[in-house]
Amino acid sequence: MPVDTLSVTFLGTAAGRPCATRNVSSLVVRLDSRLWMVDAGEGTQHRLLDARCKKLAMSKIARIFVTHMHADHVNGLPGLLATISAADSNATAEADPLEIYGPSGLRQFLRCTLSLTQTILSRPYRVHELLFSDEKCDPSKELHPSERLGQDLRADEQDGYWRNFVPEDGVTVSAGPILHTIRCLGYLFDESPRTLPIEPARYIPHLKNPINRAGLLASHGLTNPLSLLSRFQANPDEEVRLADGTVLRAPGLDLENGGRRIVILGDTYDASALVPLIRGAADPGACDEAARRVDLVVHESTNAYLPTLDESQSPLKTTKGNQSHEENTESNSLPPLHSLESVTALAQSHGHSTPQVAGRFARSIRAQQLVLNHLSLSNGGNHDGEQQQPRRRRTSTTLDGDAQDAGILLPDGRRVQRPSFPAQPDMYKRVPAHLMKPDGTPNYMLMSLTSNVYSILPEGTPLTPAVSLSQRLGNNLLLKREDMTPVFSFKLRGAYNLMRQLSDEERWRGVIACSAGNHAQGVAMSGRELGIACTIVMPLNTPSIKYQNVDRLGARVVLHGADFDEAQRECSRLAQVHGLTIIPPFNDPYVIAGQGTAAVEVLRQTDVSKLDAVFIPVGGGGFLAGMAAYIKAVAPPRVKVIGVETYDADALAQTLGAGRHLTLSEVGLFADGTAVRRMGDETLRVCAQLVDEIVLVSNDELCAAIKDVFQDTRAVPEPSGALGVAGAKKWVQQNNLLGKRLNLVSVVSGANINFSRLRFIAERAEVGEGKEVMLRVVIPEKPGAFLALHSVIHPRAVTEFVYRYSSSKRAYIYLSFYLASSSSSSRANPNANSTTGTSTPIPSPHELRTQELSEIFAALNRGGMQALDISDNELAKSHSRYLVGGNAKSARGAVNERVFRFEFPERPNALRKFLETLPSGFNISLFHYRNQGGDVGKVLCGLQIPEGESSARFDGWLQGLAYPYCEETQRWAEFMGQDDDDDDDDDAGEATGP
User: Fold this and answer.
1) CATH hierarchy code of domain 770-980
2) How far is residue 215's CA from residue 217's CA, in Å, rounded to a whole number?
């Protein structure tokens, strides 16, 4: 039988959590005296107790339908059950249970919550779980004392729907899957067909006949013949034979139009899978005018702030909750950079919808009325008692203007207008029309959203906090861990996304790529997963660990050519001869879009409204282009996209500065993953349009960043992989942003590092961080000068001390030590320099370093010593420090010299103890010490024994030192050829000095 009253009452319209004026999503469907609920977020029972809901007696609630297991849809359910139980004074354990329907996990959620809180209900409940076809039931769990055994309702294997699963008179309920970040359901409430209207003119003439009136009284007890019409209304199948032989029949049911229909959806960004269930058509897009229309659809619209950006006019009446919504293009429009496209993509990336998405769905099912529900807290509710104030944005001199593009900030401080580079139409042939922009270029935002890289990367990669580095910088730095993919770099994303687009013939023929590193592994693994034969061409000098790993992944490796250019030519030749498809490392739309999926994850993993900047490494530009395209389309315009290059591989910075596409003559190879001489044509076009700044870093700064990542993650990125972190550190320091509490993301792009590089990285990390300083110091060549020099440096930790006698007047020392300012954590922590009500400007690390070195230089000058800072001198760091010395070639030089090897525990002041115990009158003619991070310090030392000095005194000093030692005088002479050297030129030794 159809129902008389069918209404919907909204108990809450908010998303995420309740606020002062609105509860989270929950609604009640009233069927005459029966009440059915859909979802029960936190605080639902309080809304039912509200005086405005007094007609909704909780004891009348018979069924509850749950759309999905997110907290704002189920957290109120346990409390609601307790309140319902308490409200029903007649409830007993034998009463009809409260029937609850929902997805897998609902039973266990209620069992755990009620058991842990020791809640016993006077009215029992029963949970029926709607299982997807690939889900398994688990009947072994013990029931709660108030629980009755429910059913496992499995979806139809053919179409995935649950049809007519509620045994209720007058209304049927069906359900289907809709897309959200977790499994989610949409419900269809279908009323039985209603009785057709009674036409009195058909019946009254027969009922007025006196013969029939008497017959109705005699046979049916009807004193008023018109009462028969009421019976017909209640019993649409009834028929009555009158006394004159006429048969009157009830008008019957309206089978053509059926009863009223309501569709209620959970959270979703795409409910199109539900359309065939509602329309009764096999094809969701079919134009089936005969399909029954829907009277009401309740659709989420978490981002309901943009109802007017869609220029098309919908015939639907749109309401929010129970209040009509008047569209106002002036008051509701956002700044131009917040396009409908970008806001839709942002909503979709979080699994939600905009009003336009909801409107299109409502139109597809012929809905007569659309109600928007599950609105963000940024949208005011009905009868709100207070006006919500817009969120204030942080302002900063370096985080400026939202609306107007100020161009690109280059590393040299110039801000240039964005150069324009041509589109590449030949490259877009594989891209379908619906993924193209009106200007004929790819829509990389949509391409990234539709890039299914998660078949090979199911969980994506995490975004983890860099706790230690964040504390030092006074900003919140997050690391996007692309080094945690199966091939330890982001390259898997682009290669897999492109190879998925290949035709059957292209797959059958196979693919080829030229790479000596990460791209090769990405292509090889993608080929293995997709069943595509892969050939990788690599230069002959490729380390065995790399080509062996590619071979392990199933690709055929071809070693050819002395360098990458020769290997590239061989790759092109093989592709042409064998009909293979070349998989480029960066310059392809699908590669760019695949790399952009990392940005999709970043904006899902963080609060984009609070994000300030993202730092991305730059080589060929595919990673930067893909991430920038998505971030700039979806994130607020204030979010900066900053590319990071090395000084010796800065193709993008030089190209943007020149305004034309440049090719570098050579590039440095330390950051080999980004050592690209020329960017791709398409990647450059995209980067020039979207990138805000370029930051350049040195190799030493890269080494320091590798150390930072290791300290926070215990992972060691490759040099190119640490570019984002190095860039973020430099950007913060250059712009005086220490302690500003900005929210920054740095991409750790890879971790395919050669083990042999770790020594170099460890040695350069301290210099790159500005913690270790290297000086060349000239001191008088006399006893005690060494100790005097060390006294100026003390108590700073000395890490290297290199010297060889070369002149009777001057000694040239190479000296490395840690600055005292580098060890003070309070310098980097803004709270350490402030007291209540006051604050002190925080000096930058560069300012601290300069100040401390000035004090050291002044002290050295007062002692008759001259110093030169050579921390940035590559010649000194790489070569000169190891070439100091040789033979002492002066006739007046290192006479009576004895050479020793000493070992002492590597602990504070051990070196100073050695110098302080040296007997007066002994001159040091050779000295080499380097802290290698071990537990034992090793020193090579030459000592001149004054003429006439007793060897017993010297030997006594050796014994009293209590350090292991070994005399190497003769071996040193043999090794250096000192016995054969008769060149007594007094100035010869000078040439060996710095």
Assistant:
1) 3.40.1020.10
2) 5
